[in-house]
Amino acid sequence: xxxxxxxxxxxxxxxxxxxxxxxxxxxxxxxxxxxxxxxxxxxxxxxxxxxxxxxxxxxxxxxxxxxxxxxxxxxxxxxxxxxxxxxxxxxxxxxxxxxxxxxxxxxxxxxxxxxxxxxxxxxxxxxxxxxxxxxxxxxxxxxxxxxxxxxxxxxxxxxxxxxxxxxxxxxxxxxxxxxxxxxxxxxxxxxxxxxxxxxxxxxxxxxxxxxxxxxxxxxxxxxxxxxxxxxxxxxxxxxxxxxxxxxxxxxxxxxxxxxxxxxxxxxxxxxxxxxxxxxxxxxxxxxxxxxxxxxxxxxxxxxxxxxxxxxxxxxxxxxxxxxxxxxxxxxxxxxxxxxxxxxxxxxxxxxxxxxxxxxxxxxxxxxxxxxxxxxxxxxxxxxxxxxxxxxxxxxxxxxxxxxxxxxxxxxxxxxxxxxxxxxxxxxxxxxxxxxxxxxxxxxxxxxxxxxxxxxxxxxxxxxxxxxxxxxxxxxxxxxxxxxxxxxxxxxxxxxxxxxxxxxxxxxxxxxxxxxxxxxxxxxxxxxxxxxxxxxxxxxxxxxxxxxxxxxxxxxxxxxxxxxxxxxxxxxxxxxxxxxxxxxxxxxxxxxxxxx
Length: 595
Ligand code: PEP
Ligand code: MG
Hints:
It is a single chain. By secondary structure, the protein is an alpha/beta fold. It has 3 domains: about 15-35 and about 160-245, 3-Layer(bba) Sandwich (Glucose Oxidase, domain 1), CATH 3.50.30; about 45-155, Orthogonal Bundle (Enzyme I, Chain A, domain 2); about 280-595, Alpha-Beta Barrel (TIM Barrel). It contains 24 helices and 16 strands. The chain has helices spanning about 50-80, 80-85, 85-95, 95-110, 115-130, 135-155, 180-185, 205-210, 220-225, 245-265, 295-300, 325-340, 375-380, 380-395, 410-430, 445-450, 455, 465-475, 495-510, 525-530, 545-555, 555-565, 570-585, 590-595; strands at about 15, 20, 25-35, 170-175, 190-195, 215, 230-235, 240-245, 285-290, 305-310, 340-345, 400-405, 440-445, 460-465, 515, 535-540. An 8-stranded mixed beta sheet has the order 1-8-7-3-4-5-6-2. Helix 8 links the parallel strand 5 and strand 6 (about 215). Mean pLDDT is about 90; it is low at about 1-10. Magnesium ion binds near residues 405, 445, 466, 468 and 469.
């Protein structure tokens, strides 16, 4: 947008606020990911497919119009109407009837897919305008290229993208990154990333924490405000992105960065200490992992086990499904390294925002409420059985617990256990050893399962509360949608009551209850969860030292009082304010630094 003309001026400083996704402060050059020229594949289309192609084109135009109007409004509000006006020119390009007509008639003539034809027309426009003598026309070529890319992005949908041409040590700026894009990030080369869309508990954010790559998501227009090569400060603690900052600001953030890193170093000293309150109540503080490589981070942060191993990443970024043998080897290596601490391995939780390229799973309107997790596994016994076999076989090499995701009721738990029983029988017959007493637990992340946790507790060996999903389902707030992120409130009294219900049900049946959603890493709520009787926190390894610090600085009896008090509050805001106040009261140094 900023077109430099004549003598170079210092670029305009911009401050953008988003949602903090992974902590840390980094500074460096921006690499705008996914804005390279999109080259759609050339696909022949026949006469009866043309109406569908035209419809796709019209949908892409409508979507682009909506995006541009929203950006125009936001920029006019934040930076003044003259900046917003830039988008008027873009809107004019978008409405250009000649361009539309040319694209459609060319598609009919060339009998090729609309995205391919559109890219051809677009490129010919850009080429003609950028070589024009008239300066006004030359300037228009930039507008056409910007709008064209946007239309193409909406026309082609998710692009095959790669981080291969990434320059050394960059901050990635993208409209969106899928969890599998993030899994491919190389910590040495990616300093941090910022995206237009996304929420705090999206799997992209969770993956960033796992890789310890600072990240800010849900910035709405970061791809419009940052250009390739801009100098950027990314503050993943407060969710800020500063573009072309002044020297003063760079110095200030350098100080903040050093302060944050020194707190983290101090907290590292808790590595070998247990999670135990001042009055002797033992609490588990475990880590969540996505990939076997994450075990190193679990160990270095002093987690007392793995409370959630999200196995689906093993199935991603590859062309085939992993064999039983491959899975067995991965699980075996994880549990051996963690021994004598336990590892909770979750069966495949495909779906929601995690998709596998090698399985032809149709797109859905509501993927988080669709064919995912245990539902998918029960429908694909071939995949489910091979994973269960691998887990059972690995169980003799350490301490494994099996956990099913998204259990919505007793029948599902029983059906999953039926498969497990069959697989066990098979292994016995084959004389393959496994842990006959392997604990089998249910994730409680569907509100109905929380409400009937008293029944489920009779047939499960443990519970783990998946608050990332439990909150999105109980509050009806999509966890990856930045527009409604303000409603995503773990401290909502409705959520706390469900959590209490699950803990109480588990304890009545004598089974332990863990919590493995991102809420477990939110130190302002540690005291509340502890007071509700939670037995184990399982969170991104980077949050483990902070949780231990809180647990070790308070008495269980005080935590109980805090929990009792907040259960009587009517809003999430009241709960959060009170919980923060208490954290300041009991652990002022930590609260001051981290909240
Ligand atoms: C959860 O839902 O809280 C959870 C831990 O599982 P996931 O984030 O993988 O859906
Ligand atoms: Mg979940």
